[in-house]
Amino acid sequence: MNQHLSGLPAWLVQRLSAVYLALFVLLALLWWWLARPNDYAAWHALFASLPVSIAVGMFVLALLLHAWVGMRNILLDYLGYRPGLRLAMLSLLGASLLAMGVWALRILTGVWTGVLA
User: Fold this and answer.
1) In whole angstroms, what is the distance from residue 5 CA to residue 87 CA?
2) Is 80 in a helix, a strand, or coil?
3) What is the C-alpha separation between 57 and 37, in angstroms, rounded?
4) What is the dihedral of CA 57, 91, 17, 32, to 10 degrees?
5) What are the residue ranges of helices labelled H in 1-117?
6) DSSP conformational letter for 111
7) 60 in Cβ contact with 104 (< 8 Å)
8) pLDDT tens per residue across span 34-70
9) pTM of the model
10) Quick one: fold of 8-111?
């Protein structure tokens, strides 16, 4: 099995993504508390800005990486050494996280709203 995201690299991804997620949530809550957007136009203007779009995109990426490392470690710990089962479960996990990433991308960009809505 490929070990690119195990050991110290996995630990760093897990910790750095957790720090980004925590900071993003704190700043988003602070912004919401100070700005109090109350209509669609305010929310649309916020998410239409490039810095916010990039920050939200990085949030989704950090969330997916954080979930991958955490769930992968849990699966590998509890499944033991059963290569077929490990491959099936990790593939299922990867496919579901990929689907959630595509879904988030669809929501954030609005590219496919007319096609898939």
Assistant:
1) 15
2) coil
3) 21
4) 40
5) 8-35, 40-48, 50-79, 83-109, 113-116
6) T
7) yes
8) 988 888 888 878 887 888 888 999 999 999 999 999 9
9) 0.85
10) 3 helical TM bundles of succinate and fumarate reductases (1.20.1300)
Distance between CA 19 and CA 36 in Å, rounded?
Answer: 25
**Every domain of the chain and the residues it spans:** 8-111
- At position 53, the amino acid (one-letter code) is S
What CA–CA distance (Å, rounded) separates 58 from 60?
Answer: 5
d(CA 62, CA 46): 21
- Does residue 4 surpass a pLDDT of 60? yes
Torsion of Cα atoms, 114 then 99 then 101 then 48, to 10°: 10
| Chain center to CA of 26 | 17
Contact 86, 76 (CB under 8 A): yes
- Cα–Cα dist 101/97, whole Å: 6
